[in-house]
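[audit] Reproducing an earlier prediction to check determinism. Same input, same settings, fresh worker. If the tokens differ from the archived copy the diff job will pick it up downstream; this log only records the rerun itself.
[audit] input (408 residues):
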Amino acid sequence: MAKVLAVCISEKKGTMKHPVDEVVLKEEHGIVGDAHAGNWHRQVSLLADESVEKMRVNFPDIPIGAFAENILTEGLVLYELPIGTRLQIGETLLEVTQIGKECHADCAIRQQVGDCVMPREGIFAIVLKGGTVKAGDEIHIIKKEIKERTFECQRDGLTIRGTEFRPEGENLPIAIVSHGFMGTQIMERERTMYLAEMGYAAYCYDFCGGSRLSTSDGKTEEMSVLTEVRDLEAVIDHIRSLPYVDKDKLVLMGCSQGGFVSALVAAKNKYPVDRLVLFFPALCIPDDVRKGKMPMTNYDPANLPDTFLCGPMLLGKIYVTDLIDMDPFEEIKSYTGRVFIAHGSNDVVVPVSYAERAAEVYRATTPEGMTEDERITLRVIEGGTHGFMDNKEDDQYALDQMRLFLES
């Protein structure tokens, strides 16, 4: 059973906190009398005693509150909790808003203790329901009810099949997640669920002919990035017609080729895309098809066959001809909203330079009334690979950074 070991406060930020018998939590504020309280996203800090124990190997006399934690816990791996997790602590209710933080150079804690575990394993939360918290109070994770159902819509006589994850409520904002080349919606379920837990009516789906395992209609040899653009537009039209969504609040999220597709759709400015989220977007595809060198295949662009194999998947010449003359950066720059890009530094499928160039293009086209920092957020994940496949923590970090972007 997870529980509270101690509660602490401090009168100044950047200093050690001291234990008290109990603390009073207040909605939209934090802990009464604590320096970190206020109407912001880090109202309450939590740290697990299991994390502090790692420090006691070299610093056995570390006092409670040394790492500026408001609530010291036991029995819960805090830093593995997804952002958005709700914690019932005693009579209070908190929502996790941030995992870890940057530790400033003149941090008094680091100077006194020699290291600080809070930036790595501490978490932060806002207060949804106030009350008193004291040592011994139990901690329970509160699960949000998410309803799951399948949906279908049409594009040019083909049926597109997908999945809806819907939290409770009406007039919900929309988030649509598009999968990558040779992928399916199954690969995006966790990311889509993450968005649903944030409060979005969230959707993933299979592109028509998007892979040999696609549940949607269509042949792989008739698929291209531009047919997938039409697929996504059909999905948007269908979802915006649903009675429980806010059709004017739309987030498009795409991964790899799905990121490229999402960026192209957003750039049409046909829909009210409030935010655009791109994970390792495959903006390299036009360059690849021009060279005749794609992952798992090579061909002569001057003598293009009607069909060709790309690994196990049969492609048609339309995949090449639709993109061979395209400048992707010229196409995507007309989107007028805010953009988040997450990309691994060690991505060999889509070099990180494509994400960096996209960020430059978006920055250079910042609309009037918006700052460049508001326009584009680029997170290069050191050591990250394509799809963040080699390290689940990379994907979680990207999702957590995405959450901060969407909530800012």
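[audit] rerun output stored. Observation attached for the diff report: The longest strand covers residues 245-255.
[audit] end
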